[in-house]
Design brief:
mainly alpha, Hydantoin permease, two-stranded antiparallel sheet, 15 helices, about 65% helix, globular
Length: about 450
Amino acid sequence: MGVNFHFDVVELKAVSQPLMTIEKDSGHGPEDKKRHPEQFDVEVITSPVDLDDTFYAKLHSIRGSIPHAVSDEQAMMNLIKAVIGTGILSLPEAFRNSGLWFACALVVFTNLINVLCIRKMVKCAHKICKKSGRSAVDYGEMGELAVNLGPKRFRRYASTFREMINGMLYLLQFGSCSVYFIFIAENIRQAVDPHGTLPIVAYIAFVLPVEMVLCSIRQLKWLSIPSTLANIVYVVAFAIVFYYFPSWQRLPAIQTPERWPLAFGSIMFAFSSAGTILPIENRCKTPARLLHWNGVINTSYWIITILSTAVGFYGYIKYGDDCQGSITLNLPDEPLAKAVKVMVALTITLSFPLQFYSPMEVISAILKRRIKSSKKYLFAEYICRFALVLLTFMLAALVPRLALTGATLAFLFPPIIDILTEYSPDRNTGWLITKNLLIILFGMSGLIAGTV
């Protein structure tokens, strides 16, 4: 994570910049060596820059030497699992609220805008790395540097912008973890105790120690293992769910407009990955490949779009106006359906540490700056991890809808950062501002929809 990595000294010459030194992540926390300073004694670039092969060759050289860096395949498994969580199971209800064919168009369109914003985030992160001479930045650092390297009149708001992004990140990711607790517990209870003999909090408490163990995994590379396992189990679970679906009935192609906001908010929440994309990018051996036409981002979202549209479409066809908040709640009380609920609970259990990883990276960076001893740092980090898992457990029943923060992180901040990164008074930026304002308007619509 940007300057918060602990590096052995290597040299990076960002294109058009003088030589500078950055540190190579050892993965063991702070040491007694001199850490990378917050301010660099190099000439940073404040004008727009282009990303070329020379820059990426040097960036790949540094990223490839980082311990526990992830491959493209591992990045894809993590990204797919980060997106396909509890939200996709609520899409039949979103189809009910928007209409069969209108919902299909809305899912595809929302995902296209989402992919555009995710690509903006990654590309802006790379350009900010080139401008500032860093090898990686987290979401908050990217926002702060975008303001600091952008127009002068906005620079005094840089730290405020960073704290705003980090605050939204904490709210979304930890809130998602709390939702996961409820979802896992509810599905386990329906599978093993359909009459509700024990309260839901008992099942949440049963899941708590499992999540504490999983959240002890500190490296994204190793999180790709439970992510891959969760994706495989999800495919099996969806195959069984589709077994129950074929039951055609005449349904409205489009619902009345007053029901659209409910669908819009649900769809936005289902596909939000803004909080996890940069932690994944920061650990990629070859970050340039994320942006290829057939790279990690595009391929992952095509898979996600096809699967989610199918779940929403066929789930609505099967259950019509009886669709519940999660399609698993509509399944009959029989062994095969109960097996699906257990499998879905397992996949969300394995997904929990991936949602937890992103804000924990930011918190770990703060601990690294304040604790110099490696042993004390590791002790403090694990205490913090366990305490935060316990906090999400206690807040599980109190979390509101998350479309508000998801829309803000995914559709509002990336266009703002893109404008700050690309703006130049020396060239025509009318189209740059117009297209980003349209995305912001789309995000604001989702933000409002998430509060109704």
